[in-house]
Amino acid sequence: MRRAKAAAAPYLLALPAWIWFAIFFVVPIAAMASVSLTTGNLLEGFQQTFSVSNYADAIGQYHTQLVRSLIYGGTATVVMLLLAYPVAYWIAFKGGRNKSVYLFLLLLPFFVSFVLRTISWGFILADDGILFGPLKSAGLLPGDFHVLATDVAVIGGLVYNFLPFMVLPIYVALERVDPRVIEAAYDLYASRWAAFRRVVLPLSLPGVFAGVLMTFVPATADPVNARVLGGTGNTMIGNIIQTEYMTNNDYPTASALSFTLMAVLLVGIFVYARSLGTENVLEAAAR
Amino acid sequence: MTKTQAGTGEAAASPTAPEVPAIELDGVVKEYLAQGEVVQAVKGVTLSIAEGEFFSLLGPSGCGKTTTMRMIAGFEDPSRGAVRLRGQDVTGVPPNKRDVNMVFQSYALFPHMSVWENVAFGLRRRKVAEAEIKRRVGEMLEIVDLAGREKRRPREMSGGQQQRVALARALVNRPRALLLDEPLGALDLKLRQAMQIELKRIQREVGITFVYVTHDQSEALTMSDRIAVMNNGVIEQLAPPREIYERPATAFVAGFIGTSNLLTGTVERVADGCAVLAAGESGRVLVADGAHRVGDRIVVTVRPEKIVISTEEPAGEVSAVRGTVSEVVYLGTYNSYVVGLPGGTEVTVFQQNAHDSSTTAERGDSVWLSWQPQHSYAIGS
């Protein structure tokens, strides 16, 4: 009897989380799936028709924004990776006793709200704002120079906002690399580059994988940066979904777009995991 | 291949004149800055290791043996002094440009690579032709008895197997010298003993100079041609195992290697090249080695197994002291006695259970201890 109780304990302890998960994840997803297969409008009501034309229509109408989102998200992820890896490497191997200080500095911006920080960038980068205004009046920049409402502004905003999510997992992975293994590489005639390429990099891939996952998905779906820093030509799929839900009240289209985005991201992640070598990632992660 | 073929300690490969030593350390000092203070980890080590020799650096943790080895490997640069490999000064040369390889204490195998890739790593870095890599890696895995396990990952293997992968990974490069940093430390006793024999066999087979760092005196005694006993950053004694054991140069060596008795006394007279120390009433300690003068105060070591325990006063030109048995321990192949001398000194005696398992003396018995003059060694003088 007692043994049965002991065996059940982990399940019982996990139960609240499972209930939470069921109510706030599984149910909404199911509801959204069902809504995406309805037709109608807010005034006349929605009928469950199981018609997949919603998907075809939504994709037909908004594929530009969908592709743009993937390009923005992908570009931002690549830029973040290039920026984050050296930072993570530096903190992990050269940080010495101050590692936690550097990590704290990295996380410091999080003490200010995400939206607020993005709006601040809007101020800073405004066409005649605190940065470009003086430069323009000094004649250092042409009068029509602008950053806001460009691809660069939106991608830059995404990079700025999600960068720590790339740095942290890579840092953790690099931290776990046994320094003696790196010494062994040097001992076996590896140059600094070879030791990095053959030993450090492969051993940090699980961190890279996690970092890409944690940044590419939210960056691609993000509506805030495109809204605050972008113009009409930089609309991302997140903005469309938001508009369809909030402004147009076209719930079927919004749901269909959400699912399409989710499917595209899942496929993308899956292909990425395969191409990076699941075996490598999982094996190194399981170490 | 070299003279170490003979194997056991005595046939030491003492460096002969024309041959250039595989490794030379010349007045090597390593200083660290710890909390604003200069700490000397190695305080001037000079030694030369012959080609094909099995050389051990033996000492307690913190004695500087690992730092010394890391300077040979190139992971640390000496603060002063020079490191030479085959006569060539390599001080300041990075490890990837040194023709020595290391077996790390924790093996430090590449966890993301198969056994094969681990072993081939060094050859690939040196751009050895693929066919040659194939041949040499296969050959080496054969030597360390891991053929057929090429595709395994390190963590799928036992400690002993990982150890052999580490060994193969280093040896496959045919380095000038192989440096081993407590390579058997993580293994259990049985496996450790098996690997000691295995290591010695492999060393004979490949004929490469081995520099072996250990704190385990029995390991060093069984495998080495010569041993450098280190303490506090200096070499206390550098000699073949037999000499280290039989004739410890300092009290530290005597205490660190095996069990040893230390007796202090003043030279009473010198006769027939033998210094005689007074030791209690009618007791005497004969010291055959060294030139001692009357009145010198000297410290003598005697190994426990050299001492004979008896109830009768021993006859002849032997050291003889009287004492009371304070402890008798039965240890299977031998008995261990602790005998208290009048001065308070305690002497440990081992007596083989060769003929009769009954003990010669019991707790509280008054006994005579005797040993040959050549078994007393004056130290630290």
How would you describe this protein?
The complex is a heterodimer of chains A (287) and B (381). By secondary structure, chain A is mainly alpha-helical. Chain A has one domain (53-286): MetI-like (MetI-like fold). Chain A contains twelve helices and two strands. Chain A has helices at residues 2-35, 53-94, 99-107, 114-124, 132-137, 151-175, 179-187, 192-221, 224-229, 237-246, 251-276, 278-286; strands spanning 38-41, 45-48. In chain A, a hairpin with a 3-residue loop joins strand 1 (38-41) and strand 2 (45-48). The two termini of chain A are 37 Å apart. Chain B is α+β, with helices and mostly antiparallel strands and 381 residues long. Chain B has two domains: 3-99 and 175-254, P-loop containing nucleotide triphosphate hydrolases (Rossmann fold, 3-Layer(aba) Sandwich), CATH 3.40.50; 259-379, Beta Barrel (OB fold (Dihydrolipoamide Acetyltransferase, E2P)), CATH 2.40.50. Chain B is 22% helix and 34% strand. Chain B is built from eight helices and 20 strands. In chain B, strand 11 (261-271) and strand 12 form a beta hairpin. Chain B is elongated and about 75 Å long. The two termini of chain B are 39 Å apart. Chain A binds chain B through residues 178, 180-181, 183-191, 194-195, 198-199, 202-203, 280, 283-284, 287, and chain B through 73, 75, 94-97, 101-102, 104-106, 108-112, 121-122, 125-126, 153, 155, 169-170, 173. Chain A: Residues 66-272 form the ABC transmembrane type-1 domain. Chain A: One of its GO terms (biological process) is transmembrane transport. Chain A: InterPro entries: MetI-like, MetI-like_sf. Chain A: This is Spermidine/putrescine transport system permease protein. Chain A: It is found in: Cell membrane. Chain B: Keywords: ATP-binding, Cell membrane, Membrane, Nucleotide-binding, Translocase, Transport.
